Amino acid sequence: MNAKPDTVSWHERARSLTPRTQAFIEGRYVDAASGATFNSVNPATGKVLAQVAAGDEEDVNRAVASARAAFRKGAWSNLPPAQRKKVLARFAELILKHTDELALLETLDMGKPISDSLQIDIPGAARCIQWYAEAVDKIYDEVAPTGPGALALITREPLGVVGAIVPWNFPLVMAAWKIAPVLAAGNSLVLKPSEKSPLTALRVAELAVEAGLPPGVLNVVPGYGHTAGKALALHMDVDCVTFTGSTATGKTIMQYAGQSNLKRVSLECGGKSPNIVLADYPNLEKAATAAAFAIFFNQGEVCSAGSRLLLQEGIKDVVLQKVQEIGQKMQPGDPLEPATRLGAIVDETQMKRVLGYIDAGQREGASVLLGGKRVRQDSGGYFVEPTVFDNVSPRMSIAREEIFGPVLSAITFKTPEEAVEIANDVVYGLASAVWTRDITTAHRMARAIRAGTVYINCYDADDITVPFGGFKQSGMGRDKSLHALEKYTELKTTWLELS
Which of 9, 182, 231, 434 could anchor a disulfide with 60, C-beta 3.0 to 4.6 Å? Predict the structure, then answer.
């Protein structure tokens, strides 16, 4: 039984926690071949949590060889879907059984509030794996309408070995979005978690084997992007690399795929999502509340964060006043305290990046209405106040570039057409929102906005049944839903001549 957040001394539990820190290859924990390690740092204190194996090219080679051998052996790839379903369902159950442990690892490693880890991240990861477990034996192949002289079968087959590189902001959820469809389709997987938050991925690999996944099917190699990540993307025996992270890194991974074996690539990259509120929307308090959480949740370290708040003339003051009221109540606190709603920025480098954008916004002429500073410095951690900018021009860097922190840019517009023009005038196209009482306006704007998701009268609504991904430089391919299986399978035509 998992304890309620307010009945547990998370600091006490943290002191007795012993994280898994070795790479996980062929069903067991192993040191990096070089013996090298890197520090996993608690962003709330700046102190070292653990020393984690620093995998590099040799470790990736070992993991890929393990994954390929498992795939060829067929213990998983040839297992009937109904049997794969049972293993994945047990895997999901084990994640839920270890919710407290995994939530604590997530919060200590990444800095998010323990309440979010307990109530959102860990259950979300389990839900994802459970959903694909249920889906795997419900995907049918096809028979083509060729006429009576032939029988043409269209079947889906697993790709083989998939390399997955996942980010630090939702470590276990993002890993689950890759793990679940990759394994459901019958592939083997080499997962490289971010060096900023590798601990939950290393732990769940062990749970997967406990659930019955054959050794070698799921391997986890922690390490840096320029070593382990590069080796995985360049590997000649990896059939697909799936990546979530920055647009700049996504472009590099595409180059690596072309330089090596032309492996399949799917990318979920950056965002600068517009949250558009029209003056006709009748509940501006609701829209403002959603706007605040759209940017301050998870410290703003969300690829689909509503970082651009587009407000029609006449409603700006009302909406921004409410956003500021909420922001003032979401001041950064100790992530291990259940009442905390805003945690720590993941590391010092990211904190400096966020503060650098805040400085740039002021230099470019925007006005800080709220926040803008580092706080809780006596903790040794990396905390930034919720920050709201007014008088932002669409040409400013804070309105065009992904900050990945709790920084909101408010921009005014006159007409829905102008709002759409501003919304589309960035290189990204991940998420967006429109708030209006006019259903025709909502549909017209949704069609005109170039983004993978358009929320209407809400923000960040979510379910595993809908695809997630972006247009333009926000990437290609989709996570979640049945569409994710398309990335990890090949279509084969088998033609039988009957005449």
Answer: 231
| Largest pairwise CA distance in the chain | 82
Three-state DSSP state, 438: coil
Cα-flanking dihedrals φ and ψ of residue 70, to 5°?
Answer: -65, -40
Q: Which helix (H) or strand (E) holds 30?
A: strand 28-30
- Measured on CA atoms in the order 431, 437, 440, 445, is the torsion positive or negative? negative
Distance CA 174, CA 176 (A): 5
What's the pLDDT score for residue 8? 67
Whole-prediction pTM: 0.96
Distance CA 450, CA 284 (A): 25
Q: Does residue 37 contact residue 54 with C-beta atoms inside 8 Å?
A: yes
Q: For the beta carbon of residue 15, count every other beta carbon within 10 angstroms.
A: 8
pLDDT digits (tens, 9 = 90+) for 135-149: 999 999 999 999 999
Burial annotation 431-441 (CB, 10 A radius, 16+ → b, else e): bbbbbbeeeee
Beta bridge partners, 28, equal: 25
3-state secondary structure at position 112 = coil
Task: List pLDDT tens digits, range 184-240.
Answer: 999 999 999 999 999 999 999 999 999 999 999 999 999 999 999 999 999 999 999
Task: Answer yes or no: 303 catalytic.
Answer: yes
The candidate with the shortest Cα–Cα distance to 487, out of 165, 323, 266, is 266
Rounded to 5 degrees, φ, ψ at 385 are -65, 150
Q: How far apart are the first and last CA of the chain?
A: 64
Catalytic residue, candidates 106, 195, 206, 268: 268
Amino acid at 220: V
Among 128, 240, 269, 303, the one annotated catalytic: 303
Burial 321-346 (b: 16+ CB within 10 A, else e): ebbbebbeebebbbbbebebbbbbbb
> In degrees to the nearest 10, what's the CA dihedral of 449, 455, 456, 461?
180
Mean pLDDT in each 10-residue stretch from start to end of the chain (499 residues)? 64 95 98 98 98 98 98 97 98 98 98 98 98 96 95 97 98 98 98 98 98 98 98 98 98 98 98 98 98 98 98 97 97 97 98 98 98 98 98 98 98 98 98 98 98 98 97 97 97 95
3-state class (DSSP) for residue 402: coil
Point out which residues pair with 453 in neighbouring strands.
Answer: 431
Distance CA 261, CA 197 (A): 29
CB 19 within 8 A of CB 49: yes
